[in-house]
Write a structure and sequence with these properties.
The structure is a homoheptamer of 272-residue chains.
Chain A: H1 6-47, H2 53-83, H3 87-121, E1 129-132, E2 135-142, E3 146-150, E4 156-160, E5 167-169, E6 175-183, H4 189-202, E7 209-221, E8 226-234, H5 239-256, E9 265-271
Helix pairs in contact in A: 1-2, 2-3, 4-5
Chain lengths: 272, 272, 272, 272, 272, 272, 272
């Protein structure tokens, strides 16, 4: 006679039910707790960094999404594990394909991890002028996967975040204006410096300058000229126009004072 | 006597049937649900990005294909697992070969993952003029594995998508036209600038320009010339012809006003 | 007395036989089905791409070979698994050596995967003139592991397919003929352009041109010359001879019209 | 009758309780012990390196955080393991995704590991002028993930710590001032050296110098000049202004002594 | 009393014997079969490629060696597995060291895999003049691990086969002889071409040429000369001496016809 | 009645105790033995290499530390394993995080492994002048993780040991002093060589030289000069000052003998 | 009553003893056999390559060491495995740390593997002049981990063997002496060649030459000179002095025959 072992079956079912029950309870507790933890942690860490409301919300939404999907995945796998459906070999079987995918997709994950920190640490803001990954331009959009830069000539650069290994942000604080001027070896250095100092004095009242430009001395002996250097600090973004204006005024002042910006020189020893 | 344990056999079969039954039911529920989820998710994410109908369909088809193949693979492995055919060692055994394949095929996966996001994020469109992966040209076709660019000289570049680590899209928005002109150190900067400004004025009505060109000042002290710069914004694709026309007009205006674009200079100190 | 448990033995044998039976049946079904699937899939995907009959056959043969070897491998391992010969540790043991092999052989796999797609996607054909992986030449043979290019100087380049990360195919569609000509700063741009235009007109009837060459304007201010550019579209492969002929005619036309192609200029300021 | 095996159940529970009990006790002992160990170890290792109080606290906090999270993670997993919830397959299942994440996140871990050692070993301090990872500037902030450098032109560089493979710290100890001066092949080397030595003597009392500059001899035969070299040691940060002043004085002394800093020379053999 | 279960022991031994027996039989069948398969496969694949007898033997010996060692390894591990000596943990334990070894030895494996295909595909032969991996020279020896090239200056280059990512074989088929000649902008292009054509005609009977050299036209406008190009096809290895002879004859023909190969030109605008 | 199986429990405990006992005994034997082995091995290997006492102690301390930590780790894990606390899944679970950490920390391990061998093999000593990893300077400190170089200009370079892939040690043995001198094509080579030989003779008694400098002949035909070369061997560190002195004496001797160190020459063919 | 199952215990012990016994016997057979095999294999493979006695001994010692350590490691692990001490989890637990170590130590393994083959294949000998890994010099010592090169200037380069991806050995066989001489475009090529041939003839009896130098023709048209080339084969190491002597004699012969080695030429078109 076929003697089905009811006792054992019931026992097994009981154990199963108990396990699933514990599982459910754990998840029902973990889910809201985790979400709250994320929210509060993020708020604390962003509040100290003055991250804008909108950005904080984006990050929160992202993190809670990731958390939810992970939880669902874990629940499903554990559920199957308890029921005893042999999910182990399946997963192992998926490993070979999975490995290829993992290799292929690591770039994607790397993009998102880096993107997350760029957003959180506020390394760049929309509107900043930055140099990164061999591109430079004004930031148009910062995404989790790509950052968009508008180059000077109008080109739009899409940079995957993983390529952003270092960021040079040109929009953080004052900038230096720097102009190198070559004078002839025949001219008096002292005279040239005094003329340049008078030019620099004209820019003292210039609102573009945080710190008026000044002559710092003989920077180098060029092959045909003695190089003098002017340095000043300007408001961010004004350094280029300031440099252009200094250059124009220097040329004019030199013309007035008969100081020559020399052409390349060569001594010709003539033989026949 | 050979005493076949019928009871046990039936019990085992019962368990097997139950397991396979659950498996089937789960799959019959998951399959249509997953497909629907994909469709709706994709539609939502693409609708906000104004992806064209055709492109959305391509993506949807791709994702559902991937989903179906994965489901079939999972079903088969789980089925074998339940029956008890020792698929574990097989899969482990496949691991060594699999690893080599995984390494070899990661490029393929990487291509498809990147291709998917290029399609989804609309980084490039057919007809855009782009620079990427060391190639530049007009996009002829965007595939999941390769993107085809038509170079300026007519060459067709096949670029695997994984090589596209950054995209410079020259067809997004207005472009800058930029012309640098060198004038002699002997010429008056003010005079030259006024001539250049009158040339720029001629282009004010030019429909190619979004923002008429203007002289921005002394860009640099060259070894033989003072470099002045003209900058303007043009409609996309018109920057090159605009630059060519500015150059021609500048040369003519300089000729009329006796302003010289200087040759390289050298001071020769003659000895014998 | 030694009491051999015949019942159990028979039972075990029965289970074994059943398992092997199922295994056999599954394989006998899967083998022909798989082969058919490959054939039909390949035919469908190649028919839409107009792949030549011979090439399609090569691909089909390759895929069926790979499929057969995989099936045999799977069958053998599963057979051993059922018999209970401990193949698990063996395979694990092979892992260390296998890993080294996998690393070493990944290049081979990568070659074949890339080769497969180059064949399937028809990126290059025998006879195409291409640039890839730092080599350029005419394709002599496309293999699954290597592609052979015949360089211009007669050298035969063997390029492993995995090195082919991007292909520039110079034999797809019309090519541009481009000639840059420098004229003196003293010469009239308008005059030079009208002479060049008359030269271009001579090529209107030339069968090598799809689109007759034309002068597009002032391309650049060189240090000693104003650079004018001529552009035209030619039939593939004719761009070089077309360019050579344009160059010869331009030189002759300039000679007739006393327009000079200037030597490098230098202004010498003489001092003693 | 369904005969629930109470004995066995109680036995099992007993074993469970015992195991969890041991686990709890072990953790209650390990947790405070570990924290104390970290504190004392860190204090010992930092005290010998004169790390500032604030920095030591940061490191301690970080290490205790890491330790706590690890402990919690271990406890949870072991707890599940004891209860018998099948966490094994789950974890294996997470492996594929995990692998991708591991690849993607390795940069992050690498950042933190390197950051930890940069902090601990005091390779850079806030305010140091350093060159690293292709950037150079003054250190504004050293974080666990990124280090911020303020470039000379005002740009703020964000450098991920993993990119810091080598650090050139320009703010550790005295610096060398080095000036190369070319004299004519016609001038007497001895005369020039004596003039330079008298210039160097003027700087003997200069507080910027740790070791007064001196002429070390004929450094090279240039194509048009004999190169003499002056070397001295200055207080950190004063090397540039010292060099500028030496250059100015050398030029003036040479002018007084009729020693020429020669222009590039060329012998012209004139033919007709 | 100690009651040794003889029955069970005998049963176990019986199972063991059976397993080992099957194992032995399988191996005794597989070994000779495998060797034969390798021989016949290799012969077939090499016969179609006209691989020399000696080379085929080398490959066969290598493959049979690899096959034998693998078989022995498999046999030993399976034998231990059957006896029940716990070889699993051992192998796992070897994993860590093994991984390091695998990483370290992958170069070796990669060398051999590449070497095998270089031999099989006959990419290079002893005596060929090739460029590969940054070296170029005449092949002296092709080994499984390294290939030896004799450089032009006599240096012997040992190149690990894995470095051979692309091979440029200069000894396969005819080569092109190419000579570029610059003529003065003042000289008539037609005249120069007719002179060059007469020079080319002299080489028509030259046995070194497969295809007599010819003038193909105006290759470029140089800064001081119009560049004409001569191209011909020579027997392999004769291209350099052919080029040298063409150059000598061109110079002589130009001298006779008063055509100048111009020096670099410069227009000097003299100012005072 | 709940019937606790005391017998079984005691049996289990007995087995446990036995296992732990064996474990303890093994460790108590292995620990001191291992330490002694390390000490004696290190002493033997360092004594033959004349490693300084202090350095040998550092290495010994490091190795014994590593050994102790490893032993403790092994003991703890085996202890848990015996008790039966499920440490397996925990460790597997740690794998994903561990993998990321392993990737991130491999640099650290690589630093220490390389550092160990640099110390052991005495590739560099404190005070040596070396070039490595793109930096060069005098070694200030050799650590297990980083090596510090003091650059010539005073900069302190921190080089992670893993970056030290090759070391050029300039402080091992005598150095060569090498001076190249160009003489005019018009001057007699024999005359110039005899003058140079007399200069070299002056340095015969110079204590800086191990091997007096000598003229080795015509090194090259420069575009404007015939290059002669002088070579000698000096005590380590004296090569630069020796070269400077040779240069000075050569110039003076040439002046006395009317041998010219020529300027760059150019033949000017004048046209109008 | 506690009823210890003596029978079972004894049985277990019996099985254990048997297993350990087999293990011991296997190892006692394998150990000497393995060592003998290594010795004989190495001797055979080195005898055919004429490896020096000392080198063969070094290799043998190394291989036997590696073999012994491996055997001990295997024995210990298998012993623990048989006793049933849970070594599995321990090893798995070591995996994470092990992975980091494996990554970090792979360089070391790679060094030794490469070093082994450099020694075995005799790619370099002590005293050879080689170029490898960006360094070049005379080999001073070949170790398993590093190879030491003495650079020409006296620097000692330590090159890790893994960096040695290709070796250019300049001390294997005869070397080519090569001298390029430029003659004026005005001079007769035939005359110059005949003079050069007479110079070459002088070196026919020179013992340094294996093959007397000869003029091979017009190598190139330089911008200012026609380049002629002399090539000869010399005994190894004598190529440089041979080249120097040829250069000296060519200059003298040209002076006697009024053939000019021309300076760079330029045609100056003078304008005012």
């Amino acid at each position: 006679m076929i003697d089905i072992k009811w006792t054992e079956l019931v026992n097994t079912l009981l154990v199963y039910s108990a396990k699933i029950g514990i599982l459910l309870i754990v998840f029902l507790i973990v889910a809201p707790l985790g979400k709250k933890l994320i929210s509060s942690l993020l708020r604390k860490s962003t509040s100290t960094k003055r991250v804008s409301e909108a950005r904080a919300l984006t990050l929160e939404k992202l993190l809670i999404n990731v958390f939810s999907y992970t939880l669902i995945f874990i629940f499903v796998v554990m559920f199957f594990g308890i029921i005893g459906l042999e999910i182990g070999p399946l997963i192992a079987g998926a490993g070979v394909i999975g490995l290829a995918v993992a290799f292929g997709a690591q770039g994607l994950v790397s993009d998102i991890v880096t993107g997350f920190f760029i957003l959180l640490e506020k390394q760049v803001d929309v509107g900043d002028y930055v140099t990164t990954a061999g591109y430079n331009g004004v930031v148009e959009e910062i995404g989790l996967r790509t950052t968009q830069l508008r180059g000077f000539d109008g080109t739009l650069h899409y940079v995957p975040n993983r390529e952003i290994t270092g960021v040079s942000n040109h929009s953080r604080g004052n900038m230096r204006a720097l102009v190198d001027i070559g004078i002839s070896y025949e001219d008096s250095i002292d005279h040239a410096i005094s003329v340049l100092k008078s030019v620099c004095a004209e820019f003292e009242a210039d609102v573009r300058f945080e710190e008026a430009p000044d002559v710092i001395g003989v920077q180098a002996f060029g092959s045909s000229e003695v190089v003098l250097r002017i340095i000043g600090r300007t408001i961010n973004g004004e350094q280029w126009s300031a440099e252009r204006d200094i250059r124009k005024r220097v040329k004019e002042a030199f013309d007035e004072n008969n100081i020559e910006i020399p052409y390349p020189h060569q001594v010709n020893v003539v033989k026949n």
